[in-house]
UniProtKB/TrEMBL annotation:
PROSITE patterns: FN3, IG_LIKE. CDD domains: FN3. InterPro entries: FN3_dom, FN3_sf, Ig-like_dom, Ig-like_dom_sf, Ig-like_fold, Ig_I-set, Ig_sub, Ig_sub2. Residues 234-332, 337-434, 439-533, 538-628 form the Fibronectin type-III domain. One of its GO terms (cellular component) is side of membrane. GO terms for biological process: axon guidance; brain development. Residues 316-342 are annotated as: Disordered. It is a lipid-anchor; GPI-anchor. The lineage of its organism: Eukaryota, Metazoa, Chordata, Craniata, Vertebrata. It comes from Culter alburnus (Topmouth culter). This is Contactin-5.
Length: 661
């Protein structure tokens, strides 16, 4: 570049293109553009020598496309000999040399020479002709059943100087083993052999499998067909062609049989009250695989149904068809009578009749209800009452004239807008028996303690108004009965323990029976007094002396006050520290000797005992036992007496206070 001029020496074709000059100073810049076209140049080849591999019998093309201007003259030579066009060797208009049905004799070095007035250039193409590759895929047709496995083997015969690669295809699309999980696996034990393992085959794996083998000289595809037998596919959508009260005429179209002929069709139906899809009876029965229609029979009137069809072949049962539209069967007279007709209970002069309601699928139409018919035993005419609610389960009839437990013959029928249906069988139902009529007899009461009374009685004479339980009323003698308390039995027990009472107090007690109708009369009130209260004072001055493993306890006798029960003995409670369970000993005296096992801490307390109950507890004594401690007052000394003997001595000291411990 000199003084703003751009000079290009030894111009070449590659120098052609757009050029831009930029002039600028501190005030700005301006641009100028120009295009350089090379109108004349010597021939140039953009590629280096070419190596071309072909196979015997295939056509091959050797290209010669130099860049030159003006258009160059082209000549071809092979191994330094000019190529002469023939019927098999053709020079095309674009200077490409076309060899038809190539053979091994066509191998060699081909030179394309391009020349014009500016110069010349040559392109060397080395042509190699190899034997054609052969690919064998076996088996070429295979039939398998869903769940089985198969191996497709692809073997290649090719020129050993060439490397071969394999590509598996399914229905002309590359096989993606990752998308298919563990169903597919490539197995290549030799460079010229590739196998495809297909495990646990599914219906979707059926199709045309291709093995494409490829070298730098050739690409060959071999194909095999895989047929998968399996359960049939879903039949076509079910159409309801005609509907009656108990039948539906259905039609459908065949689905795919998956290479195993369809043997039978199964017709299924569901309704709002059914537990899912249920197989229905058909006419004809069975429905064979060649049929495309059938009649569903023994349907329930006035029920909305959907229908579907399932096909079966020798492999198994396939998926069901798309359900039909929902259709309702026509109305009909009810055909099912209520079940479990029974009765009883109720109030005085009532006849209570109950039954299990008829489910909606057996009501057969609108306006469904019940007809309750009954008559007293020994009479001729039936009384009939209409119950218009389809959900009703009970009817009550009241008549002041019939006595309790009057037997009636009862039956319950059904009806709807189409007419009356059947009646249930006749059962005997008794009218209500009424509340108990007689009071309990031989009521007795016994004071257990200062706060408890036990009441006993006998049931009334059997008859109408049997008690289902009893109610005991009790109140103080100085009170009105209305101020008292009531307590009921949980069943037909004839004893009750009244607790929480006041000591040394007279109570009145009466008993009455009750049932679902009401209460019966009360027995005559009897009087019973609770025992005096237990002594309020605890045993005092509790002392203990240890001798060996024996602990001698003594205390001051407890004297009852005027309003307290006389002391009849004492209760000694022995508990090992850290344990909740206590040993209890009773003695009529104010002293006792205890034999304690060694190695523990024991807590002892004493209570006075009377007919009114137990008195207050004494102060606690805490005794520590351990081996090797000598006996002394105020401590516990234990020698090595076996535990069995120790507890035996303790038992004797309690049972026989005079026992020489």
């Amino acid at each position: 570049m000199v003084n703003g001029e751009l000079i290009i020496h030894r111009l070449q074709q590659a120098d052609s293109g757009m050029y831009q000059c930029i002039a600028e100073n501190k005030y700005g810049a301006i641009y100028s553009s120009a295009e350089l076209k090379i109108l004349a140049s010597a021939p140039v080849f953009s590629t280096s020598p070419v190596r071309l591999i072909a196979t015997v019998g295939k056509d091959v093309s050797l290209e010669c496309r130099p860049r030159a201007s003006p258009k160059p003259r082209i000549s071809w030579r092979k191994n330094d000999r000019r190529v002469q066009p023939s019927r098999r060797i053709i020079l095309l208009r674009n200077n490409t040399l076309r060899i038809i049905n190539s053979s091994r004799s066509d191998e060699g070095s081909y030179v394309c020479r391009a020349e014009n007035q500016f110069g010349s250039a040559e392109l060397i193409t080395m042509l190699l002709v190899k034997e054609p590759m052969r690919v064998e895929l076996s088996p070429i047709r295979v039939e398998v059943t869903v769940g089985e496995s198969v191996v497709l083997s692809c073997k290649v015969t090719h020129d050993p100087s060439l490397d071969v690669s394999f590509l598996w295809l399914l229905n002309n699309q590359p096989l993606n083993t990752q998308q298919e999980g563990s169903h597919f696996e490539y197995i290549q034990t030799q460079s010229s052999t590739a196998d495809l393992m297909i495990r646990s085959i599914l219906l979707k794996h059926a199709g045309k499998y291709g093995c494409r083998a490829q070298t730098s000289a050739d690409s060959v595809l071999a194909e095999a067909e895989l047929l998968v037998r399996g359960p049939p596919g879903p039949p076509g959508v079910v159409i309801v062609e005609e509907i009656t009260d108990t039948t539906a005429t259905l039609s459908w179209s065949h689905g795919v049989d998956n290479h195993s002929p369809i043997t039978t069709y199964n017709v299924q139906a569901r309704s709002p009250v059914s537990l899912g899809w249920q197989t229905v009876k058909t006419d004809p029965d069975p429905v064979t695989g060649s049929m495309e229609s059938a009649m569903a029979v023994e349907l329930n009137p006035w029920v909305e149904y959907e229908f579907r069809v399932v096909a079966t072949n020798g492999i198994g049962t396939g998926d069901p068809s798309t359900p039909s539209r929902a259709v309702r069967t026509k109305e009909a007279v009810p055909s099912v009578a209520p079940a479990n007709v029974r009765g009883g209970n109720g109030r005085r002069h009532e006849l209570v009749i109950s039954w299990e309601p008829v489910s909606e699928e057996f009501q057969n139409g609108e306006g469904f209800g019940y007809i309750v018919a009954f008559r007293a035993n020994g009479t001729r005419g039936w009384k009939e009452k209409m119950v218009t609610s389809a959900d009703s389960t009970t009817y009550k009839y009241r008549d002041e004239t019939f006595p309790p437990l009057t037997p009636f013959e009862v039956r319950v029928g059904v009806y709807n807008n189409k007419g009356d249906g059947p009646f249930s069988g006749v059962v005997t139902v008794f009218s209500a028996e009424g509340e108990p009529r007689e009071p309990p007899s031989e009521v007795q009461a016994f004071a257990i303690s200062s706060s408890e009374i036990k009441v006993m009685w006998k049931p009334p004479i059997p008859g109408p108004g049997r008690p289902q339980g009893y109610e005991v009323s009790f109140w103080k003698d100085v009170e009105q009965e209305e101020m008292g308390k009531k307590k009921r039995t949980t069943g037909n027990e004839t004893t009750m323990l009244l607790s929480g009472l006041e000591g040394n107090t007279q109570y009145l007690v009466s008993v009455k029976g009750f049932n679902s109708v009401g209460q019966g009369p009360a027995s005559s009130a009897i009087k019973i007094s609770t025992k005096k209260n237990a002594p309020s004072l605890p045993p005092g001055n509790l002392m203990w002396i240890q001798e060996g493993n024996n602990v001698s306890l003594s205390w001051d006798p407890v004297k009852a006050r005027d309003n307290e029960s006389e002391v009849i003995g004492y209760k000694v409670l022995l508990r090992q520290e850290g344990r909740g369970h206590s040993q209890v000993m009773r003695t009529p005296n104010s002293a006792v000797v205890l034999a304690l096992p060694e190695g523990g801490t024991y807590i002892i307390e004493v209570r006075a005992v009377s007919e009114g109950g137990e008195g207050a507890a004494s102060a606690q004594v805490r005794v520590l036992t351990s081996s090797g401690v000598r006996a002394k007052s105020g401590q516990l000394s234990v020698h090595n007496l076996p535990p069995v003997l120790a507890w035996t001595a303790l038992f004797l000291s309690l049972m026989v206070p005079s026992f020489p411990f």
